[in-house]
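Hi R.,

Here are the chain sequences for the assembly we discussed:
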Amino acid sequence: MTKGPRADSLKLVAERSPVDVPEIERLRLESLLHDAITGLTLHPFADLKGARVANLGVIYVQLGRFAGVESLYGWELYDRILRVTAASLREDITASPLAPGLLAMSFNGSDGVFLLFDVARRVPGRRGVTLEAEAARLRQGVGRRLKQALGRSAVDLMHIHATALVVPDDPRVRPSRQVMRALAEAARLADARESGEKKSFVERLKALLSARKLRAVFQPIVGVSSGEVLGYEALIRGPAGHELEMPDELFAVAREGDLLLELENLCVETVFSSLPRAARKKRLFVNASARLLTHSVFLDDRNLAQMGRVHEDIVLELSEKEVVFNYPAFREVVGRLRAAGFGFAIDDAGSGYSGLESIAQLRPEYVKVAHTLVSGLDEDRIKREIVGSLAALGERIDAELIAEGIETRGELESLRGLGVPWGQGFLLGRPAARPVVTRPGARGAPGDVC
Amino acid sequence: MSGRIFVVDDDPAMVEAVAAVLSLDGFEVDGASDGAAALRAVLNDPPALLVLDVSMPGLTGWELCEILRRQPITRDLPILFLTGRGELRDRITAMQVGGTDHLTKPFRAEELRARVRALTASGARRGES
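And here is the predicted structure of the full complex:
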C-alpha cells in the first residue's frame, strides 16, 4: 500500500485483526444479550444461572400496546419510555420486601419487563406482602415516573399492566422450561387484561362519536424569519379532561375499534363547522388520510363544493406514515381533489417510513417536517443533516417546508440557518379555538398566550 | 488544532484519502480497514473522533457503534458516519445506533474538514439529551 503525500501521519492498524477474536466475540454477544436502552438482559437465564427454586415468583410489567403507539410517537420517545420504565423498576425493587429474593430482571425486547423472585427469600418480618401487591406498586411507580418525565399526553396511551404468579417447583420438569412457561403465562395474563381494557376504550370512543363530542382547535403556521402568518392547522380534540382528549389517543382507539372512517368524518365536519375568523382569512391545513380521501362520501362533488364554500384555500395534510403514493387509484383521487381546488401537504416528513422519492411523487405544495426531527435539532447534527436534505428536496420539487413542533428559540434559530421558511409549534402559537400568534422576538414569554 | 482521529473503512484508499484531508488541519490519523481491528484499537486507546464506514465485512459500522456506546470509555466518543448509504432511513439508523454525525460519500473535503473541526471542538460536552 502506498501512502499519499499528505498522509504522513497515517498509521494503518493491521488490515485483518489476527488476535483478540474471543474478546470481540464477547462484546458482540454482550450487545446481543443486553438491551442498550433499558440496560436489562434480554434473556432471563443470563441472570438466573439455572437455579432450582421451590417457589418461583414472576412479576411481569407490560407497557400497553395500542396499535401503532410507537409509530405515532416515534422511536425516540419510545426509547425514553423504556428507559424511564426500567429505571423506575430498578429503583422501586430495591425498596421492596421481596428484594432479597430477586433472581433476574429481564426485558422481553419489545414492551415488557420480567422480574423473577425466589418468593421464600424476603426481608425478615414482611411475610404478609404478596407478589400481587408488589406488582401493583411497581406498576404505579412506572406510571407516576412516566407522567413526571414525559407529561400527560404521551403517557395516556401507555397503559401499564402488571401481572404476578407463583410457580411451585416440579422436579419432573426441567427448570429452564418451567421458567419459560411461567413467563409465557404471565405475558398471557397481561394480554388478557389489556384486551379487556381496550374494549372499554372503544366503547367510550363510540359514545363520543355518537354524541358528536369533538371540538376543533387551530394552530398558526408562521414565517420563521418574517413572523407572517401563512395559515392555520386544524387539530381535533375530545372533550377537555376526557381520557380521549388528544388526537393520538382518539386515533389509536379508533384504529383498535375499526372506527377510523367514522372518526375522520366527524373530524372534518367539526373543523368546518367551527372555523374562527382568523382561520377563515388564511390558508387552512386539514389532516386527512388516504382512506378518507378515497372514500366516496368525501369525494362526492357536493361535499367538495360545500367545503369550498366554507373555505377557499384548503390544504390537505397527508401523513408520510400512511400514504401509498404508488397506487394509480390514489393518484387519480389526488388529481380530482387538485381540480376541485385543494392543495396538498406531506405531514410527518422524515419520520422514516418512506423514502423521499414517494414525497416527490405527490408534488405537494408543502412538506411538513416531523416534530421528532425538529425537537432538539440545534443540538443534533444528524437531525440538521436530515432537515437540510428535506430542504434540498423541497427546492427540487418546488414545495415549501414547514417545521412542526418548534418549542425553543435554539430550534427556531437553527431552522432559520437551514433556510426553512415556515414553522409551527408552541413557541409560535398554541392550538386554540381562537388562535393567537406569538412572536418570539417580542416581549412576553412564549407560553403565556394560550 | 490537533488531536488523534481514527478512520475505519474497508477500502484502504478511502482511509488514506480521509487521512490526507484531515492532516491539513494538523490531526494525527490512525486507520483500520475492518471493524474488529478498529474496535480493538479504539478501546485500547480512544481517539478524539471516530470516522466510520457502515458497510464492511464482519463487524459493520452500525454494530461497531452500538458496541462502543456500551463501553464506558467510548460512551461519549464523537462518531462521524462517512458512508455511501445516504438514504433517509440510513441516517435515522445512524442516529438510532448512537452516531454523532453523518456525511455521505462522495464528500467534499471542505465539508469533511468543517464537520470534523466542529465535532472535535464540541465532542467533550455531547451527552444524552
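Residues 123-129 of chain B have pLDDT under 50 and may be disordered. The first strand of chain B starts at residue 4 and ends at 8.

Let me know if anything looks off.

Best,
T.
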